[in-house]
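FAQ

Q: What does a record look like?
A: Structure on top, sequence underneath. For example:
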């Protein structure tokens, strides 16, 4: 049986065995930016999940760009060594599953308590080691809630951050990552340059849309210059700021076109999280897929759809109907780390399993179908 979800896809020189992506998920488990045993469990499982690509969580390109004290980083030797071992271990047992990393800079949303802390979503206090944060403009994410006013990045600061992305990309290549996704959404640094809600600059990095895109495009071009041409580069962007005066899907189409021209191979369409008080739509199945569909059709760049994709038939329909090239799932993979296997079983596709687990392939073991009557 052939299904769109289980057809391979070529991105630059990389072949993905199918269209299922494990979406980046911050674990807040790092120590000094270094991967810990939790990451081996979390990501090791996803490497044998049936997904065609596993993307590591938002990984900071410099210390001030960490969301919290417990984020992964890729800005020093020790972090590079830990991630190198992690990627090498994942590939030792899942050689055909590409591994990507999401390179990030949290900008004005840096220096917060992590989501596992009782003070989650609040800014760090000085006593808990808050550091000074940076952004396109000196406007706090939420002054009432105590979020810092960021230092406006000057020319030297922009050069430093751009170089940090380049240096982390070089490290990512040495770690044998197959793909980089820039984090350009959720109110983090690159997004805050593009959105008129957060960029009030009067220099060539602010003002009209062309100027607001300039810094992220410079980052992309600089990284493209050092990241191997056969390895894909992409960015998670916003389909809508869900706030009056913010970015909309029309802006996302224009941005995606510019990113494509600058050398990106794909974009992932997410939304929101840039300013408090946004008007969110109900979180229903496929609620952001339209963004991926519009950008794919109008900007002509491969897209990844994300957001409440949970059911194999739902995922199959998104890919088969050409709404997106790939589907990224986050919570469904936390809930079921073999989601890819089970999607294959539900859609009646026989996919390779690691030899050691071959005995549970639906072709040789009826257990999954007995437990899930009607699948396959
Ligand atoms: C635990 C967790 C951590 C996340 N961390 C990240 C992240 O590091 N980078 C990112 O772009 N999105 C992150 N997200 C958002 C997901 O990648 C995804 O876009 C979102 O959860 C919607 O997809 P879902 O409905 O499949 O969960 C995270 C989501 C969860 C649940």
């Amino acid at each position: 049986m052939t299904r769109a979800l289980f057809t391979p896809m070529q991105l630059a020189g990389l072949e993905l065995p199918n269209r299922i992506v494990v979406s980046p998920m911050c674990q807040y488990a790092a120590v000094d930016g270094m991967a810990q045993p939790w990451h081996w469990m979390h990501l090791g499982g996803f490497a044998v999940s049936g997904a065609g690509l596993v993307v590591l969580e938002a990984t900071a390109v410099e210390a001030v760009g960490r969301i919290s004290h417990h984020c992964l980083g890729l800005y020093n030797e020790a972090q590079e060594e830990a991630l190198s071992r992690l990627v090498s271990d994942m590939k030792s047992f899942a050689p055909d599953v590409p591994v990507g990393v999401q390179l990030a800079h949290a900008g004005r949303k840096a220096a917060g308590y992590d989501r596992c802390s009782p003070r989650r979503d609040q800014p760090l206090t000085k006593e808990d080691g808050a550091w000074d944060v940076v952004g396109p403009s000196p406007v706090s994410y939420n002054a009432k809630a105590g979020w810092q006013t960021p230092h406006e990045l000057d020319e030297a600061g922009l050069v430093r951050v751009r170089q940090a992305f380049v240096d982390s990309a070089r490290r990512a290549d040495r770690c044998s990552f197959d793909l980089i996704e820039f984090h350009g959404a959720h109110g983090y640094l690159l997004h805050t340059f593009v959105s008129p809600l957060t960029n009030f600059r009067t220099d060539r990095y602010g003002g009209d849309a062309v100027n607001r895109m300039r810094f992220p495009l410079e980052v992309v071009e600089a990284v493209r210059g050092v990241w191997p041409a056969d390895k894909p580069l992409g960015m998670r962007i916003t389909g809508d700021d869900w706030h009056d005066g913010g970015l909309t899907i029309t802006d996302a189409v224009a941005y995606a076109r510019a990113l494509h021209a600058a050398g990106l191979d794909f974009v992932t369409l997410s939304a929101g999280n840039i300013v408090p008080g946004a008007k969110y739509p109900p979180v229903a199945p496929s609620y952001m897929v339209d963004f991926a569909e519009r950008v794919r059709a109008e900007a002509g760049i491969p897209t990844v759809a994300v957001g409440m994709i949970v059911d194999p038939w739902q995922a199959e329909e998104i890919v088969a109907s050409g709404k997106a090239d790939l589907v990224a799932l986050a919570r469904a993979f936390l809930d079921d780390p073999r989601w890819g296997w089970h999607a294959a079983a539900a859609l009646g596709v026989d996919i390779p399993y690691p030899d050691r687990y071959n005995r549970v392939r639906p072709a040789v073991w009826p257990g999954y179908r007995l437990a899930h009557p009607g699948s396959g």
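Q: Is there anything notable about this one?
A: Residues 155-174 form the longest helix (20 residues).
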